[in-house]
Structure formats: structure tokens, C-alpha cells
Amino acid sequence: MNTQGLKLSQLRALVAIASCGNFSEAALQLNLSQSTISHAIATLEEELGVILLKRGRYGASLTPVGERIVTPARQVQHLLDNIVIEANREKGLLGGKVRIACFRSIATHILPTVISEFRQHFPEITVTLTEMDDTINMEQAVREGRADIGFTYLPASDEFETWEILRDQYIALLPPNYPIQTSKLTWEQLASYPLIMTGITCCAQLISAYLKTSKYPMSIAYEVREDSTIVSMVKQGLGVGILPRLAAEPLPAQIQVCELPSPLERVIGVAVLSNALHSPAIYAFLDALRHQGQFMEKAAV
């Protein structure tokens, strides 16, 4: 047997399945696809020449030899974790603070997952969130040193170093009683409805510039700041709202969702001050954000 063929990823998969009792939950725990987990176990069993798991209709359980092998596999994983801890101690990652300025949709839908995974690796680093309603305020917080990391719309000014995290499409929200037979509105249809607009500067400027590309005059009936208020007003039949999909979630079942006449999106990025001296904790969190961004891109594909 060539022990060099054994991989840590295979042992992690075995330990995860032993803990979870099935392949699907183990895949979620390791942030991998179920097929990747299945392949890891199959190749591990092939390398060892023994069957480690009994696959059944209701999950997977360890065989007797699997029970004996999973114990040293856990020990290997524990030793590896200790190696990472020692490396982090040397890099100054066993403490510190990361201050984040973000808007609600990022704080609601993106950051909880990132922070949860980050704290599993760096439990002694404190992460604080400050929610702001405008990218202007977020950029100013980073500029003045009140936040280490900010979320903004791209492109941003040259004083910031930025990375794209996601692209969020704008959608039209229609009341339940509005008759609509298509999934995509025309400019003429959009102009026929009273519009409920956001008053937040960064969003309002983007939507206003978009609406000006139409040859039809738009009827703006209301201007409000909170995304949830726009959703509630649409639900009550007061007009049509235009919001980024992420900001609109979760949507009541009664509200109809349509595509806009032409695509409109906001490109969301993470920003730090260029040429600033950042702590190892901040760099580690930026790596976690990049990883989450790559995961979302793969999921979208």
C-alpha cells in the first residue's frame, strides 16, 4: 500500500460522515458537493482496500474496520488543527479585531455564513458589524479609520483596494392584483405603474440613471428609505417597487416578481484603504470573504 496516496481531504470526509451519519450533511459541513464527498470516500476505500462505510437508504454507517480507522483519522485531523494553531500564533491570528461597515442585505444574507466559518478557524478574533444605509457612509467609515473593511458598489475611488464579491440584479416587484402575463416588463408597462423608489443615495442614483434611458416618462409616486417598507407598500397595492433581489428578500408569496425591461445590476465589492498597514486578522477575514465569493460564483453557475 502506498500511504502517500492517502489525502487529508479523504480523512476529513470520513470523519464528517461518521459524525453526521450521511453524505449530504457531511457535504454541507465541509462546504463541498455530495459527489466530491462520495469520490473522496471511494478513493480512500480503494487505497486502503477495505470498505469503510455501509451505504443505506437512510444514510451511512461505519463498518467494523471503519470504526477502527475513524479514530486515528480524528487524531490526524486534531494534529493538523494544532499545526494551524501554532502557525496562527506565530502570525498573530490568536487575537485581534475586525470592524466591518456594511448595508443590511449583506449583513443579512452574506456575512453570517462568512463570520460563522471564520470563527471556527479564528475563535479569538472579534468581529464587529456596523450597518449603514449608504455606501458613501461606509466608505467614509473606512477612510476615517472607524471601520477596517467596508462594502461598497464598484467601481470605487482609487484610495480603496477592492474585490468583487457578487453581482445583484435589480427586479420589479408588483402587487398581487396587478395583471401581468409575462416575466419581463416592457418600458411602456413600467411607465404605466406608479413607482415606489428608494431614497438611499447610492441606490437612488443608479435607478434614476437607469430610468432616464427610457423614452417613456416615469411616474414616481413614493420615495422611502427602507427596503422592507417598499415591499410592504407593494404588497398593499400602492405601486411597483424596484429593488436589488438580495435587498428584497425574503419576499411575501403574494408579490409578483418581474425582470426589468433591460438588465440592471449592482456590483458589490469589499474595500480597504490602499497602502494601509492591516493586521493579520483583517487579511484573514478578507481571505474568508474571497472564498465565500468564489463559492457563490460556483453556485450561480
Automatic annotation (TrEMBL):
SUPFAM superfamilies: Periplasmic binding protein-like II, Winged helix' DNA-binding domain. Transmembrane segments: none annotated. Residues 6-63 form the HTH lysR-type domain. The keyword Transcription applies. Keywords: DNA-binding, Transcription, Transcription regulation. Gene3D superfamilies: 3.40.190.290, Winged helix-like DNA-binding domain superfamily/Winged helix DNA-binding domain (1.10.10.10). Signal peptide: none annotated. InterPro entries: HTH-type_LysR_regulators, LysR_HTH_N, LysR_subst-bd, WH-like_DNA-bd_sf, WH_DNA-bd_sf. It comes from the Bacteria. The keyword Transcription regulation applies. One of its GO terms (molecular function) is DNA binding. GO terms for cellular component: cytosol. Belongs to the LysR transcriptional regulatory family. This is Bacterial regulatory helix-turn-helix, lysR family protein. It comes from Lyngbya aestuarii BL J.
